[in-house]
Design a protein that fits this description.
The chain has 141 residues and is an alpha+beta fold. Among the domains are: 41-99, no CATH class; 100-132. It is 48% helix and 16% strand. The chain is built from 6 helices and 4 strands; from the N terminus they run H-E-H-H-H-E-E-E-H-H. Strands 1-2-3-4 form a 4-stranded mixed sheet. The radius of gyration is 35 Å and the shape is flat. It starts with 11 loop residues before the first helix and ends with a helix.
């Protein structure tokens, strides 16, 4: 059987222990990016002609170019002769496109349903207020 050889010769371990430790270059701690908070779009600007929108766009080009088309379409409503347009970007250039009639009717129906829903909510709230102020529920119990 072969004898094991010591890794260090006698006294060498003292040299290693007494040698200064070299600083290890550690990579700086990378903090995760904070998720940006996006504020909702409060108001929508409506344009009734393509020229009006073009003029507005040319005046605010630097602010609008970095925005996504989704955000731009939420910010601006372009309707010319009852024909709505959507903003799109082709090779980074802003352009307008018409919305197919089938989508227009669906969008109009959704808006109509939302208005009906809001009317129902208002009526329910007025009934609740009436009940609370007249004491109808207290008398019935």
């Amino acid at each position: 059987m072969k004898k094991l050889q010591p890794i260090l010769k006698s006294g060498e371990h003292k040299k290693i222990i007494n040698e200064p430790i070299e600083a290890i270059d550690e990579e700086p701690e990378v903090k995760p990016k904070c998720v940006p908070v996006i504020k909702p779009i409060d108001e929508q600007i409506t344009f009734e002609s393509i020229d009006d929108f073009t003029n507005y766009y040319n005046e605010h080009k630097e602010d609008l170019n970095p925005l996504s088309t989704c955000k731009l379409n939420k910010m601006f409503k372009i309707i010319v002769d009852d024909e709505p347009y959507k903003i799109s970007k082709i090779k980074g250039e802003l352009s307008l496109r018409t919305i197919p009639k089938s989508r227009v009717t669906i969008i109009m129906r959704i808006e109509e349903l939302e208005n009906t829903q809001n009317e129902i909510i208002d009526k329910i709230n007025s009934i609740i207020n009436l009940i609370n102020h007249t004491g109808f529920v207290r008398d019935a119990v």
